[in-house]
């Protein structure tokens, strides 16, 4: 790891000159001023990172030193990572999902979620300052990853970490929570008194959705595995149906205003849509845009995906009178602030099942993929 240690005015500005010469031209220092002041911060010019040089199993992951830190743009933030969580998207990307976007860019750094401290900020960043503890997540198609000790995110992708939880706990939250937020708040615009069905409440997104819907005054029913029933009920679901032991179509009564389907198979889609009242919203996390683009290339795959989506939207509007959506995670600073507020109030959490040091990233991916660990796995960055 190589560091620049700008010493503000103490060294006659040589530290500042070095920082500028190393490409961090737009940086502000602690306190948010536009010129460096007396500060003890360090600016990393190289870092450790988990690189994906080619698609494949966990063995293709490489933890390398001396990976360059790119120039920080005006609206970007350099975060000293303390913990990064593993999402299903990470293991799928490692195996080649999204290759139509990522293959020409290899090697890339994996990872979406992060919790850590602000190490430097771009010139236009106003809401964050050096030294603050932050958490957040990159957009699903972002080329820059978080499996590194110094990650770059946009200002909008970060907010202050909830004070009451650890970096490990915080890193498990943003990607899953913002996916649930996107579906329930942005798309379905849930409101007090509505009924929400979460298919797959045992997973991170599903559990986040239960808690967000409850916090918005909704009545929530969920389907989950037997080991997740108690947790879903503790999270506020009024009913948690064990999909391994019960017929969910018989066990669940009444109609719903919104269905979030985290599984998104043909059977859960059929069931979810039949449970909606007219005007309700069905949202699946398994949109086909990336898989069709991977199979046929971006030029053919994306228009094909759009055509499939429009056809389904038209069909379901006509046959059931409902709105059909593919939900994709999006950064949402307002959502992230609200999620932090709920976390600090003790009303929102994502349990972490196991942590690994980042040096054991291959073992962590393997354990997650073999379903040896059902819940969230977090990589600790020392
Ligand atoms: N489109 C997007 O932007 C986006 C964003 C985030 C995630 N995703 C996708 O959404 C899915 C969920 O993500 P996640 O982070 O929540 O994953 P996760 O934490 O690994 O959760 C997966 C959970 O699904 C549950 N499950 C499996 N089959 C089920 C079924 N038939 N009925 C009900 N529950 C079932 C299991 O819970 P039990 O232990 O209770 O059995 C499992 O723990 C993944 O496929 C992921 O790739 C998409």
From TrEMBL:
<dbReference type="InterPro" id="IPR011032">
    <property type="entry name" value="GroES-like_sf"/>
</dbReference>
<dbReference type="Pfam" id="PF13602">
    <property type="entry name" value="ADH_zinc_N_2"/>
</dbReference>
<dbReference type="InterPro" id="IPR036291">
    <property type="entry name" value="NAD(P)-bd_dom_sf"/>
</dbReference>
<protein>
    <recommendedName>
        <fullName>Enoyl reductase (ER) domain-containing protein</fullName>
    </recommendedName>
</protein>
<dbReference type="InterPro" id="IPR013154">
    <property type="entry name" value="ADH-like_N"/>
</dbReference>
<dbReference type="Pfam" id="PF08240">
    <property type="entry name" value="ADH_N"/>
</dbReference>
<dbReference type="InterPro" id="IPR052585">
    <property type="entry name" value="Lipid_raft_assoc_Zn_ADH"/>
</dbReference>
<feature type="domain" description="Enoyl reductase (ER)">
    <location>
        <begin position="56"/>
        <end position="379"/>
    </location>
</feature>
<dbReference type="InterPro" id="IPR020843">
    <property type="entry name" value="ER"/>
</dbReference>
<dbReference type="GO" id="GO:0016491">
    <property type="term" value="F:oxidoreductase activity"/>
</dbReference>
